[in-house]
Prior knowledge:
The chain has twelve helices and nine strands. By secondary structure, it is an alpha/beta fold. The structure holds guanosine-5'-triphosphate and magnesium ion.
Amino acid sequence: MKQIQWFPGHMAKARRQIEEKLKVIDIVYEIVDARIPLSSSNPMLNEIIKNKPKLILLNKDDLADPKITNQWIEYYQNKGFIAISINSLTDNLEKTIYQKTKEILSESILKDELKGLTSRPFNAMVLGIPNVGKSQFINNIAKKNKAKTGNLPGITKMQSFLNAGDNLRVYDNPGVLWPKFEDEVTGMKLALLGSIKDSILPIDDVALYGIEYLKTNYPTSLEKRYNIDLKTLVTNIEILDEIGKRRGCLISGGEIDYERVFNLFLNDLRNGLLGRMSFERLDSNV
Ligand SMILES: Nc1nc2c(ncn2[C@@H]2O[C@H](COP(=O)(O)OP(=O)(O)OP(=O)(O)O)[C@@H](O)[C@H]2O)c(=O)[nH]1
Ligand SMILES: [Mg+2]
């Protein structure tokens, strides 16, 4: 996984590059991780894109808790945004995205028509923090037309778009924005799902945060995956010990190899092997 270390200089540069591209963009697709929609959003995105129309995409919905994802979609709708949940790995997204784009841009389409302007394809740009699935999404909607459309009239030579059907073009280079740094819980959630480098936060803290969250919110999934009985395990360390024993994460002498248990648990969680889960709930966040 490609990871960027964000410094103020990098942030300013990313912002400048995005603002430059936005001049030829009709709509922004903001991609967030459906499991942590608030924590995986960039804190300045709205300020950067100003009044540019936006479609919010809750990606990786195959890994998220469907009931909670629906609550998030409603939350965005109540704020006046259009949001949909998607799976960029397997969904066929081209038509859905085009329809939503048309819906969002309907007013400006009408204005153009009244001015007698002929219709032209919409230009879209994908924005989001690292690892939310920006590239996967672009590949998904532009799959039939991977070849670049070349330089378009009136557009800077450096910029190139991919066709996503006949009436939509997506900028081939997604805008990568920095994650939220401000609070510890956000950092934990990002680390838990692998959106920030494992070296940024101590892996034991991250794994214990995950165990605690699952114990409270998805106890049965934890029990099933590792064949453990939470009623007999009091502390989170006891849970880790039991997982370690059952999975043979031991060092010579029979002691638990915690490093291996942390990695095993985090890999399982990140790959959805514990089931569909959300780590941000409307009732406890807003
Ligand atoms: N399960 C699941 N995995 C996904 C989905 N979309 C993307 N992924 C996976 O998530 C990881 C990150 O996807 P990318 O498309 O590389 O993410 P990105 O936003 O382009 O990341 P950067 O280029 O690092 O900023 C990859 O392993 C993808 O296979 C999805 O809808 N569901
Ligand atoms: Mg990418």
